[in-house]
Sequence to fold (323 residues):
Amino acid sequence: MDNRVLSLLGCRLPIVQGGLAYVGNGVLAGAISRAGGFGQVGSAGRTPEQMLDEIEKAAKEAAGAPFGVNLPLSEHSDREAYVEVILSNAQRLRAVSLSAGNPRPYIDRLKRAGLTVIALVSTPLQAQKAEAAGADLLVAEGYEAGGHNGPGEWTTMALIPAVARAVQVPILAAGGIATGDGIVAAFALGASGVQMGTRFVATKECEAHENYKAELMRRSADDTRIIERSRGRVTRVLQSAHVDDILELEKRNPSESEVYALVRGEKNRVAAIGGTLEEGYVNCGQGVSLIHDAPSVDELFQRLTGEMREATRRIRSLDTLLH
Ligand SMILES: Cc1cc2nc3c(=O)[nH]c(=O)nc-3n(C[C@H](O)[C@H](O)[C@H](O)COP(=O)(O)O)c2cc1C
Fold:
């Protein structure tokens, strides 16, 4: 087995928690790392000081297991302040994932501090550019994913084998993966691990509001919507009255500021943390159809590894067809 992901991240299982705006708290990241995966503290929706607080909580919860942070570049106008906090805490972190922007200007600095650099990509061309810029590991994320997706709208099924053929660095598959069979499928497509987001929101340790978790259990992929196309972005969220208003507005050729008023971070916070889902929006991927409970991270990892074993057994029977 290709275990470059395990050696780059220092974890036991190649299951990574993606950055989760507003709901990527330190206890969640630490619990995922302690369970054998790789957790990442989210910085979107947090000040640099709040990010540091969550890094401290993650370190405590992880009990020595390595974890990282996510830096979505376009989300922070003051991104240097975040980079400074990351660099001055480099000893406590194993990796930084760079998303939503060009990672090139940051990669060397972060690597010189001893950090593994993960770059998020959504096309094979972006993957080649991120590899050339020095990224150690790529997350190739398909259009099924919750949150911001690439404008090319490549689906995970088409994207992973294409990226695997385009680069030498190891790849984590993301987008629509919420079960152990999804993880095994990612390996079959050429990935060396996975990054999951939506599934980890519905866990005991995630600080998302209980109403958000309840909606994830209740709803299906039919209920996800793409907002922000009018401003050149592709963001997969869960339908709500507020999301319907955004989509209505976007049909009417609105100005940037009109759209921004409805999609700004505060509208995510009121729903994801405040629990008033109809008055805002929450990120949600198509894998929501596979979520029916909010277990502890430990319980979820036991389930995922059981499903991986089962899926591996099923795939073995393919062999008999091929002889
Ligand atoms: C609630 C939520 C918030 C997210 N916030 C971020 C973020 O701040 N930075 C980032 O790089 N990706 C973010 N993502 C994407 C995830 O890190 C991950 O790549 C994605 O969720 C994978 O697809 P899945 O939701 O189908 O598992 C977010 C996803 C969700 C569901």
